[in-house]
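Data card: per-record layout.
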Amino acid sequence: MTQGIQRRWLGLGVAVCLALALWGQYLLARQRPAFADGVVLYAISAVLFLVLNRMAERAGIGEASPQPQQGARPLVWARPVRIGLVAASLLAAGLCLRIIIGRPATYWTALYLWLAAIVLFVVAYAHRVAWPAWADLKRRAYANRWEIAAVALMLVAGALLRGVNLAHVPANVGGDEGSQGLEAIDFLTGAKTNMFETGWLGVPTMSFLWQAAWFKVFGISVATLRLPWAFVGTVTVLVFYLLVRRLFGKRLALVSGFFLTAYHYHIHYSRLGSNQVADALFMALVLYFLTRGLSTRQPLDFALAGVFLGGSIYFYAGARLTFVVVAAYLVLVGLLDERKLQGQASNLLVLAGAAFVVALPLGYFYYKHPDDFNARLNMVGIIQSGWLEREVQITGRSATRILADQFQRAFFAFNYYHDRTVWYGATIPLMDFASSIFFLLGLVLATFRWRREPYLPFLVWFWLGLILGGMMTESPPSSQRLITLAPSASLFVALALTRTWDMFGAALGKARAWSDRVIAVSLVCLALIGTVYYFHRLMPKRLYGSLNGEVATEMGYYLRDLGPDYRCYFFGPGRMYYGFATIPFIARGVEGVDVLQPLSGPPDFVLPDKGAVFVFLPERVWEWNFVKEKYPGGKIRDFAHAQSQDLLFTAYEVPRSVVEAANP
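The structure for this 664-residue chain is written out next.
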């Protein structure tokens, strides 16, 4: 077959492949009963995509160009000094643990010792750095100026998309956000001092200390509640870019990084005052230093990988996936290319040692309180919670059939099924129509290349995250448990996108520059689709946080404006209570009382020392007549949803003078 004919067949094949995938996704978007037909079309498209990539690979089209790796550099310290530094690190960690066991009034000394232990361990494996001359540094910067500019643009765009107007997008402040904010405030007031235990819902208190530090610097508000996680999301983009660049080269890194920058799913969780988005950052950091260490054999890389591995347990429970991914990845590396692990026993020991030092304080707490360690798994794990056993009894289906259904729901979270929680509330799957096509093709291509070094860490990350965070938990897909997959999913989109246009370009006889331009235009289109959907279509609906979250948010702002001179009497039970954490977080200092039972006459529980504001949910607004009977002349206000105008709640304000007059 001549080269020209081969190119024409390649171009035709790519067109047919995309058409089949487009048709398949269209059927999936229509929902049932077209699901099976859509899956079949996708399967045919995926097989064709694999064949086409095989053809293109033989022709040398669009091969990855990973970053050149440097060999191990000499360490700064001689062996006796290193041993001394590690011993000092272990001593500091031991002293930290001893203080914690003694349960002191304050744990700041323990925190400082813990940080010292981490620094000592890392410094022990510092290597010599050959700093380039200023002229050489300028030459390198100029040679890579376009990449530097692109990365700067990526980070600026990522920060803006995640950090602008945080107080109002999302408009609702979720109850879990409020709870974490209140826990952080407890650190500022001294009500909470131990950062090496768990707090609300079994979440490690170190996460709340991190939040409290931002409150301390920038003040307490909804914006500053969310700001640290916008920062974490933005840093994740950078670390993910570095990881992909190291394994695949700068071209795929830029495409992947820009996609994650504008990926609506990741943007959303970066804009919440909640710690789930940190999962992806820790995973990316650990894999970056681990994969680099396996190539360079540099102990410092293993030490840093261990530090971030141990540190991951101090945030969201889903970050424990990092330990499983690291273990599975190392086992697979040993099976596929044992030369990579030969002579690395000491470095793996460094990795384990660093993780031990960092995880020791909280690990001790979990050792003494195993129920706290398993709290979230016992709640949401389908085996631990007994859900699987109950489902078998209720439905009469076999456990295998139920597990298959769980896997299907998790696997098609990006293409077909919608989020089943109020954490996101998206009206589409976790990817938009166009991106989901490239995602699935890229995932299939990467999975069939699992033996190749660059693909393996991302595949272990994705598949284990999908199974453990999706299939093996209740109600998949639950977006808060799958957010760790956003970076690896972005890589799969970028992989299929670049391969598709590279093959098209080759079929048309175009140079690489042509496909680069088309890829850039495609990225801009995908970014616009995702960001317009998120900011202009989804967020105005105020689906995040549920109806109760919207009520609590508006009620909190209203009570905050009234101030502490009023006491709130909340006619919300049994749908919701004043303790819904959004209310006390936003309306700090405003006292609230739940009116548990419906009124049968004028209220006799109102205290005369403050003004009174009676807040009624729609289903209890009829009780206002009893309140008005005793406290006439108050001001009544209705609060409605901005779009639907459905009533959220009714407030009846009674000044202190009227309350005193009615309660002589």
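Known properties of this structure: The mean pLDDT is 93. The CA atoms of residues 2 and 661 lie 99 Å apart.

See the next section for split statistics.
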